[in-house]
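Protocol step 6 of 9: fold each sequence in the batch and record its C-alpha cells directly after the sequence line. For illustration, a two-sequence batch is reproduced in full.

Sequence one:
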Amino acid sequence: MKILQPPVKDTDSLVIKNSKFIPLLFVVPTKEEVSAVLAELRKKYAGAVHFCYAYRLGNLGEEYRANDDGEPSGSAGLPILNQLLSFEVTQVLAVVIRYYGGVKLGVSGLIKAYKSSIHSALRIQDYDELIIKRKAKITFPQEESFKLYEWEKSMAYRIKEIYPTYGIIEFNDETSLKEKISQKIQETQGFNFTPLD
C-alpha cells in the first residue's frame, strides 16, 4: 500500500464540452477529516454543481466509499474509487468538482471524464510505501530478560516496553519477519510470543 507524500501536487482541470472537472487529492486518515474537507470545498467552490468523491482509509484501504453527488449512479464516484484501487493508495480523499457546462455527456462520457481527471492527478504525485507496524507480547523468565535485548538488533524488532517477566516489541508487518521472531522465541525455554494486533 502507498500513501501520498505531502505536499500534494496541483493538477490542471479538465474541460469537456464546456464542463470543467477539477481533480483534488487530500491526505486524510479519518472519516471526520473527509467530512471536514468536503464541507470546506463546498464553501470554496460554491458555484460548482457536483462534488463527486471517493476515499480509502485504514492501513490496507479496507474502509472506503464512493459518492456520485447527483450524477447518474456509478458514473463518478466509482471511477474515482477504481483509480485509487489501481494506484494502491490509502489514507486519501479524491474529489472531482464539476462545473456544468450546459451539455450532457452521457454516462459513458461522465465515467471517462471522472476517471481521466483523477487519473491525471494521481499519476503526478509522489508516494511513500506505508509500513505497517505490529506489536507482540513476549513473556520470559525474569533472569532471561537480557535475551530480549540481545536479539533486538539481529531480529529487526524494537523493544517498546520491558517489565520483569514480559516485554512489548514492535516490528514491521512482514510475514517472514513475524515468523522468524516467533520461531526464535518459541524455541527458547520459557519464552512465549503473543501477537497483540
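Sequence two, same batch, same settings:
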Amino acid sequence: MSLHPPRRSPDDERRLMVLYVIRSFPALTGMQLQQFFFDYNEMNYFDMMFALNDLCANGQALREKAGDNFVYTITPAGEEALSLFGSRLPQSLCRFVEEKGAAFREKMQEDEHYPRQIRKTEDGDYVVSLGIVEKDQPVMQFTVSVPSCRMAQDMVNAWPRRAGKFYSNAVFMLAEEEK
C-alpha cells in the first residue's frame, strides 16, 4: 500500500497561464513567478511548480541557472503552444497581466537593484541585510542588527527609496578628511 497519493497533473489551462506569464515577463525566477500568482490569487505554489516542471520537461519552457537562482524563459515550442491554445486563457488573467505588468516589472527591477533581507537570530534580534547592485555588480552591502521585527521591516521597506542617499552619505563621510 502506497502512502503517497498519486501526482495530480496540472491541467492545460494552468500550463498556459504559466507560459503566458513567462512570455510577458522574460527571465523570471521561480520566486517571482510565485509572487505574481500569489498576487493574482489564481494558482498555489504546488500547482505552479507542477506546471513549470511539465513545461520544462516538454521543452516549452527553459530553466537556467542565474546566480543563486533559476530563471524561466519560454521556448519556441512554448510560443507555439500559446499561439495554438492561448484563446483558452481566462481573459481576466490577460487583463491582469496587462494592467499590472508595468508595476510588476518595476518591483522586479527594484528587488534586483536593491536586495534586502531580514533574518531572525537565536537571541531574538533581527539582522537586516541591504544592498545596492548595478549592472549585476554589488556596489554596496550593509548589514545591521536591530531589536524588533517592526524596525527591520521599516528598514527593508524604506531601502529602495533611501538607498541612494545612504550610499552618497556613506561615501562622503568615509572619503572626508578629518580636520
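Proceed to step 7 once all outputs are recorded. Observation for sequence two: Residues 12-112 form a domain with the Arc Repressor Mutant, subunit A fold (CATH 1.10.10.10).
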